[in-house]
Amino acid sequence: MLRFSTAGESHGEALVALVSGLPAGVPVDQVRLDRELWRRQQGYGRGGRMRIEKDTAHILSGVRHGKTIGAPVAMTLANVDWKNWEEILPVDTGDATKHKAVASPRPGHADLAGALKYDFPDARYVLERASARESAARVACGALAKMLLGELGILVGSHVVRVGGEELGRDAAWAEIAASNAKDEIFLNCVDAEAEARMKGEVDKALRTGDTIGGVFEVVVHGLPPGVGTHVNWDERMDGLLAQAVMSLQAVKAVELGRGVTAAESLGSTVHDAISYEQGDAEPEDGGAKFTKFTREKNNAGGIEGGISNGEDVVVRGYLKPISTLRRPLASVSFETREATKAAYERSDVCVVPAAGVAAEAMVALTIARLVIDKFGGDSLGELKRNYAGYCEQIRRF
Ligand SMILES: Cc1cc2nc3c(=O)[nH]c(=O)nc-3n(C[C@H](O)[C@H](O)[C@H](O)COP(=O)(O)O)c2cc1C
Ligand SMILES: C=C(O[C@@H]1CC(C(=O)O)=C[C@@H](OP(=O)(O)O)[C@H]1O)C(=O)O
Question: Is 381 helix (H, G, I), strand (E, B) or coil?
Fold first, then answer.
């Protein structure tokens, strides 16, 4: 089974990422890995920290001569900011005299709930791990999952569909999303320049007023055959696994599959994706590997029915609340005196929708890769590919 975990504090020495369950022989491209990390650092509205960090993954194990060897892959990502925190957050000296307290909890962040739970006198150690700095390690893990999926022709990308009150008022085709993701400069990762300019206006407004803003990203999985995931057990359904994976990202407060939200207020006749059948035995142009004669004209289901992929693009949206650290802080209470004060502010992002989209790509890729490995098995990439090709042929001949 494909598994991954992360460790590391936001201002600690490094993040650690561990992925196990990848078959042997998956090509690992360091440039692609670091590009994924770079993409997560982009986006209009990020704060001062992103000018300090330049994320790169250092592979410690599980990869030899550019390919996985079937063993767990361990990676570290250095925190450049550590040099500014080394004295404040010593790992094992026991010297807490330089501790820098986060003295009043920020509404919306983990500060208060975490301090109460772990019995800390302030929120420093809570925010250190609650911070979305951790999502960089997830992106490193997800990059490996993407490399595996890429070997099977399964691609994962994302784009921004809403910032605050401004939205992309139309659907985006996979080719547009892929082109937006391939750009050398990622502004808001919206596929439409006009909509992106409106979204930028929303970020500017929040910046000017000392406020923050949320939005919606969309992750798309392209090229996944029907039949991955299952309806037979609740905890093996693709929809449930994707929802948990994306919801687990910092600040994501709702997850939508396909048009799940508007479907709730619409009639079945307009929601469900009518099925048609393409006649004839002609070989499809792409070599036939993923051809199915059953087709849909629209994809409101977001590529999943009954917890199983149906062969259409898998479409997952994540809804982000506005960032909780405000330059004009909300009311809070001092941990020490219990008197009314303002919530803590050091520095902060104002808008992170594009970055969260990239982190969600990683979570979706890891989830899909897990289900693909579960279904097709194989200790080597060659074995996995043979099994995969055999299944795709079965689908083609159905
Ligand atoms: C990429 C990214 C960057 C973030 N940056 C900040 C930030 O600069 N300041 C902040 O208060 N929250 C930031 N957040 C959100 C917090 O990490 C998150 O709200 C907090 O951990 C509490 O978790 P919850 O919102 O999921 O309940 C960021 C989230 C993401 C995905
Ligand atoms: C470091 C990252 O995001 C951080 C996530 C974050 C939070 O509270 O989630 C708070 C900020 O950290 P700092 O207080 O050091 O500026 C962000 O910069 C990152 O995305 O790599």
Answer: helix
250-274 per-position pLDDT tens digit? 999 999 999 999 999 999 999 999 9
CA dihedral 75, 81, 87, 91 (to 10 degrees): -20
Model pTM? Answer: 0.97
Give the number of C-alpha atoms closer than 13 A to the C-alpha of residue 295, restricted to the C-beta side.
7
Domains, in order of start, for the chain: 3-396 (3.60.150.10)
Contact 95, 109 (CB under 8 A): no
Q: Which of 323, 332, 350, 361 to mutate to test the pocket of ligand 1 (most atoms within 8 A of CB)?
A: 323
Q: Is the CB of 313 under 6 A from ligand 2?
A: no
**Buried b / exposed e along 135-162 (16+ C-beta atoms within 10 A):** bbbbbbbbbbbbbbbbbbbbbbbbbbbb
Q: Atom 11 of ligand 2 has which residue's CA nearest to it?
A: 348
The 10s digit of each residue's pLDDT in 212-250 is 999 999 999 999 999 999 999 999 999 999 999 999 999
Q: Dump pLDDT digits (tens) for 166-218.
A: 999 999 999 999 999 999 999 999 999 999 999 999 999 999 999 999 999 99
- Asked whether 131 lines ligand 2 (CB < 6 A), one says yes
Quick check: 20 and 72 in contact, CB under 8 A? yes
DSSP letter, residue 236: G
Q: Which residue among 42, 348, 351 has the greatest number of ligand 2 atoms within 8 angstroms of its CB, and so is best to mutate?
A: 348
Cα separation, 365 vs 360, in Å, equals 8
Q: For residues 218, 237, 227 and 157, what is the CA-based torsion angle, rounded to 10 degrees?
A: 20
Pairwise CA distance, residues 369 & 101, whole Å: 41
How far out from the chain centre does Cα 391 lie? 28
Atom of ligand 2 nearest to the CA of 324: 8
Residues framing ligand 1 (Cβ under 6 A): 47, 108-110, 130-132, 135, 249-251, 323-325, 348-349, 352, 355-356, 359
Q: Determine the Cα–Cα distance for residues 325 and 282; give it in Å rounded to an integer.
A: 58
134 C-alpha to center of ligand 2: Å? 9
Q: How many angstroms is it from 246 CA to the middle of ligand 1?
A: 14
